[in-house]
Write a structure and sequence with these properties.
Keywords: Aminotransferase, Transferase. The protein is α/β, with parallel strands linked by helices. The chain is built from twelve helices and 14 strands. The C terminus is likely disordered. The structure holds pyridoxal-5'-phosphate. Pyridoxal-5'-phosphate (PLP) binds next to α2.
Length: about 400
């Protein structure tokens, strides 16, 4: 793992084995990280980049943590919003008389962070965006300032290809940007700089789910050696041993032989890349002319499973999702399911005009038809809207002339 990750991410120094812990997948390890590194009283909030991977919400909830949404713009997380809100959260804490002492016992292999920040910085599920290098660096600095642990699900990083719809060579064996955990390692003296506690402020959650098979229930996480050791000491892992011995053994063999890497670069990237090209070409001919919008259209490299689409103005995702299913047998996900529960008041944290679409599942030759069917639904709604507007302006005109008459 260490040498494959080093080859792929090209960090400033090679990745050592001590920085890696084998996990039971990104979901299971998110729970482990929260068990070891948070406390329900001392940890003030989980700051979640919205729209967010919705199945993470319950994992945070299980650890009794308070969720807050942070909007994204075209560069990724809105740093200034996050800074203001964390500052306010800390001011509120200072106003409380009893302090916020942890209720969990302190252990030598762990620490309780004051804040958690959760993001999917590369080819995000669901927003499809990639956070820029500048934002990644700003986020690391902010996390250091406020004792936050940034947990990133880096689960789509290997599924990447050139964004150009005419690209022929769809395989890329080097990461597009350093992960946040790589940046934490080198920025301003790095995570293990003098005077720091050595745990660092970021951890990368990786997974074999998307590159070898979800049922394997195996992943890895990377952080400082101190943090990786802390994860390995989670109670359930210590009792059972590693979370995923058998599957991890098989995976170890296919990484050592290079078969997994070949599968990723020679099978997955070209197949998903071709699906992406067909999907986006259809979106450009069918949906963009209707007023729909795609995020970050100027990237050189894209990837992942999903595309986030902002619907034309006046069209609600709830209606599109229902009609697409009922009338066209097309399944897309409604934007609202990716809203952070309990924190949807601020602009950019609610998504009733957006949908998430998956291009990775269906065969290459049916994807364009799926988009054509979706376009039919949207066009139908726009026609109804125009009829409605025509009717209401006629009513308005009648009313106005009636008022004039009286
Ligand atoms: C952002 C994100 N995190 C985590 C997961 C789940 O990963 P795993 O199967 O490794 O638990 C997914 C899969 O859908 C995902 O999209």
């Amino acid at each position: 793992m260490a040498s494959w990750l080093t080859n792929f991410y090209q960090p400033t120094a090679p990745i050592s084995e001590e920085r890696i812990a084998v996990t039971g997948g990104a979901s299971q390890n998110l729970a482990c990280l929260l068990q070891v590194f948070t406390d329900p009283v001392h940890t003030r909030n989980v700051w979640i980049v919205a729209p967010a991977y919705m199945l993470a919400f319950r994992i945070f909830d299980d650890s009794a943590l308070k969720l807050r949404a942070v909007p994204e713009d075209e560069e990724g997380i809105d740093i200034e919003y996050l800074r203001t809100e964390i500052r306010e959260s800390e001011a509120k804490a200072r106003a409380q008389p009893n302090g916020e002492q942890p209720i969990k016992p302190q252990r030598p292999w762990s620490k309780f962070y004051r804040h958690i920040i959760y993001a999917v910085p590369t080819f995000s599920n669901p927003s499809f965006k990639t956070m820029t290098l500048k934002r990644r660096e700003q986020l690391v600095r902010l996390a250091r300032e406020y004792d936050a642990l940034i947990i990133t699900d880096d689960v789509y990083d290997f599924l990447q290809w050139p964004a150009s719809l005419t690209a022929k060579h769809l395989s890329l064996d080097k990461a597009v940007l350093p992960r946040i955990v790589d940046i934490d390692r080198y920025l301003d003296g790095g995570a293990e700089r003098e005077g720091a506690d050595g745990f660092g402020n970021s951890v990368s959650n990786g997974s074999f789910s998307k590159i070898a098979g979800p049922g394997l229930r195996t992943g890895w996480c990377e952080g400082t050696s101190k943090l990786a050791f802390g994860v390995s000491q989670t109670g359930s892992s210590r009792s059972g041993g590693a979370p995923s011995q058998l599957a991890a053994t098989f995976l170890g063999e296919i990484i050592e032989s290079g078969d997994l890497q070949r599968h990723v670069y020679e099978v997955l990237q070209p197949s998903y890349g071709r699906r992406y090209q067909k999907f986006v070409r259809a979106i450009e001919t069918e949906l963009i002319p209707l007023g729909a919008r795609l995020p970050q259209t100027d990237r050189d490299v894209v990837g992942g499973y999903f595309i986030w689409l902002t619907l034309p103005d006046g069209i609600k995702s709830i209606t599109v999702v229902q009609r697409a299913k009922e009338e066209e047998n097309v399944v897309v996900a409604q934007g609202e399911i990716f809203q952070v529960p309990g924190d949807t008041d601020h602009a950019g944290t609610h998504f009733e005009q957006d949908i998430r679409m998956c291009f990775a599942w269906e065969d290459e030759d049916v994807l364009a038809e799926g988009i054509e069917r979706l376009a039919r639904v949207i066009r139908g709604l726009q026609n109804e809207q125009q009829d409605g507007e025509a009717q209401s302006s006629m009513q308005h005109a009648t009313k106005a002339s009636a008022e004039e008459f009286w």
